[in-house]
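Allow me, if you will, to draw on your knowledge of protein folds for a short while. I have a record of one protein: its chain in single-letter code and its fold written as discrete structure tokens. I remain grateful for any guidance, and I place the record below:
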Amino acid sequence: MRFYIKLVVLIFTLNLSAQMQNDTIFVQPITATKSFQGVFGNAMLQIDDAGNDCLITKPLIIAEGFDSGLLGGENEFGENQLEGFIEEIEESESTDLQNLLTYQTEFIYGDQDHDIIYVNWNSPRAHLQLNAYVLEEVINWVNQEKEPDADQNVVLGQSMGGLIARYALADMEDDPNLDHDTKFYFNPKTKKS
């Protein structure tokens, strides 16, 4: 009887822990306010805020790389998503990226150093400009939502997301009415097999 009760308590605890991990990732739809060839692009953000306090104070915006969209039926975010990005960082040999997220501790959702805003393109095979305008809207949204004393943005572009991010940041630089409030952008090298 005691073993059964302990087993039930253990299962309940593990289930609650898994739910808490999933509950820390918020989803936010974004639609560009600038069109490309008459089309307004959009994306779905996955947000894992540091400290689970629902505040954006140290934003890390990640522009996903090429996603063929072929797995859309199996995964609502396609082939790339926040969880896969975290797994790749944990398995990589890039201590710089690992330290950026965790400051040399094991990654626990919500316990990282930066508020992660992962951009999942709804049209990943669209023109780069279309998704760049979406990223501009993501940056504007982050700037509106983050705390007044928050750090400047850090933008990470994965593979093709790096091209999109460079285009978006340059386009925002050229527009005197836009402020990307980004202190640095980087595109990490992909791991070679």
About this structure: The first strand starts at residue 25 and ends at 31. The first helix runs from residue 2 to 23. Helices lie at 2-23, 82-91, 95-102, 128-145, 160-174. The two ends are 52 Å apart (CA to CA).
